[in-house]
Every structure is written in C-alpha cells, then in structure tokens.
Recover the amino acids of this structure.
C-alpha cells in the first residue's frame, strides 16, 4: 500500500536525520518526534477513511493524540516536589481514558472486536515506552519519544509487495495475532536491541586490526592515549588504592575527569574507553529491518525450531 511506502520513507528520513544530530551532539530536537508522530496520525486517519472504518474506531485518536502530545507539551503531574494538580492535564487524560473505554464498550461485543484490540496497542505501547524509561531499559528521553512516534507512524504491521519478508511467509492469522501481541514499534525496538548483541564481535574485529586485543576489554571498548579520549566515550579505568582498576559498564556517577587525572598521575599512557553509541542509531536500523525483513528475533527462533 502506498501509505506504508510513505511511512517507510518518512520514518527512515526523519530517524536518520535525528540519528545524525544524536551522533554529533547527543541532543535531539523534539520537533523530529512531533513531526513524525503527527504524520503518523495523519496517515492513520487517511488509511481509516480509505478502508471505510467504523466510526467507533476513530475514538482511538483521542487517547493516541493526548498521550503523545502530553509528552512534549504542558506541565507534568509528577515533579521532584511531588504531585501537582493540573486541571487541564487531568481533564485531557480523563477524556483519553473515557474515549478508549467507550471504543472498547462499543466494539468488543461485536465481530469487529479485533479492531479495538489493534487500536489498543497504541496507548499500550506509549505506556510501555514510559515504563521502559522509568525502569532504565531505555536510558535516553529521545529513545522513548522515538518509540512513541514510531508507534503512531506504524500502528499496524506494514505490507509492501511481499515485505516484510518474514511476515509474508507466515499464516495471515498468525500475523494478525502478532500485530496485537507484538506491535510493530516493539519489533523495531527488539531488532535494535539485537544489534547490541552482535556489537562485541564488531568491537573485537576493530581491536584485532589495531593489534590491541585484551579480554574482555576488547569486546566492549578500545584503547586510546590518555590525553586523547573522545568526547563521547566512557572511561573504563581509574586508579583506586594505588591499583589500576577497570569498570566495564561505567554509567552515571562515574567521574570521567577524576578517572583521567588519577591515570595521568600514575603515569598511564593509554586507557580503555567504551564508545557512547546513541541507541537511536540501531533503532533507525531496527525500524528499516522491521519494515523490510520483520521480527528478526522471531525469525531466529523459527529457524532454530526448524520451521
């Protein structure tokens, strides 16, 4: 369908542009996500009209729009000082919930219950994105916003002349179940996460070419002169108690400058560092793979089962 082609082109273009900005500055303008999500809502509305969707289906646009735009506009209910009463925000969230409940009430008892279940994946995935952020599964706010925007851009599994390849070979009934249990945006996220599984092999090859292989350091980082540490890299070593120690997964609270100072004072000439790779880059790749190939994890499992 041409609408899916538009989703692919627009999603790839905006995600790629945001990835470039993320790589250069580690900051992304929210306008990328607002544009992507707004385009998604417009394409979803056009698709609904072209397919002659029931009027009840259009109720999903109320919670979809409110939950998405509330991420970028307005004041939060929960702040560092605690709960803050925001009448307008509470009224909007209440309207979103009532619209969702009304659609379910009208469609679930009918033969079109599947329409509601597919629509339900939109607010559910927005909530899942927030949950991933709160639990630390997604560290960056831009990653969460990207996941939300992708949810609106591709609310159903796409289909473009035989693509995605993995889904095109499956029973349509199974694809229908997967589109509800495993929405497209979650497929894109899973594909992105799988990239980090194979990343250590790429890092090992890089270090082997430079003749600097030390396990397990070479699987997650690389060695640089102590005075030439890249701006966007975690320092994996420091001096503690007169000994040079390694932290393989340094995170917030790890004082980079203090670590480098202690190494210089100890006479260190080089240091192992871990590149800070923006997750948006593999997410962009995961989006493209999801469109053209499908759920890679599902494909690997099916292959392992001999199917």
């Amino acid at each position: 369908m041409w609408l899916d082609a538009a989703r692919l082109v627009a999603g790839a273009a905006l995600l790629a542009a945001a990835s470039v900005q993320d790589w250069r500055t580690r900051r992304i303008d929210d306008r990328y996500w607002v544009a992507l999500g707004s385009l998604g809502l417009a394409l979803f509305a056009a698709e609904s009209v072209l397919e002659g969707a029931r009027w009840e289906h259009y109720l999903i646009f109320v919670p979809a729009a409110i939950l998405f735009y509330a991420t970028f506009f307005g004041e939060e209910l929960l702040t560092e000082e605690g709960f803050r009463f925001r009448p307008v925000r509470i009224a909007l969230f209440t309207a979103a919930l009532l619209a969702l409940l009304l659609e379910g009430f009208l469609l679930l008892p009918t033969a079109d219950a599947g329409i509601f279940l597919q629509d339900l994946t939109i607010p559910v995935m927005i909530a899942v994105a927030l949950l991933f952020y709160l639990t630390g599964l997604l560290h960056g706010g831009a990653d969460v916003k990207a996941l939300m925007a992708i949810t609106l851009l591709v609310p159903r599994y796409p289909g473009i002349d035989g693509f995605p390849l993995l889904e095109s070979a499956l029973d349509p009934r199974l694809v229908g179940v997967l589109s509800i249990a495993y929405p497209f945006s979650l497929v894109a996220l899973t594909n992105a996460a799988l990239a980090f599984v194979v990343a250590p092999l790429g890092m090992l090859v890089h270090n082997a070419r430079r003749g600097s292989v030390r396990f397990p350091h070479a699987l997650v980082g690389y060695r640089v002169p102590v005075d030439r540490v890249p701006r966007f890299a975690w320092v994996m070593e420091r001096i503690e108690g007169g000994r040079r120690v390694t932290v393989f997964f340094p995170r917030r609270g790890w004082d980079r400058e203090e670590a480098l100072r202690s190494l210089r004072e100890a006479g260190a000439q080089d240091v192992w560092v871990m590149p800070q790779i923006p997750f948006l880059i593999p997410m962009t790749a995961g989006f493209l793979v999801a469109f053209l190939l499908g759920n890679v994890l599902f494909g690997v499992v099916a292959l392992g089962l001999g199917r």
Notes: The chain has two domains: 2-192, 196-275.
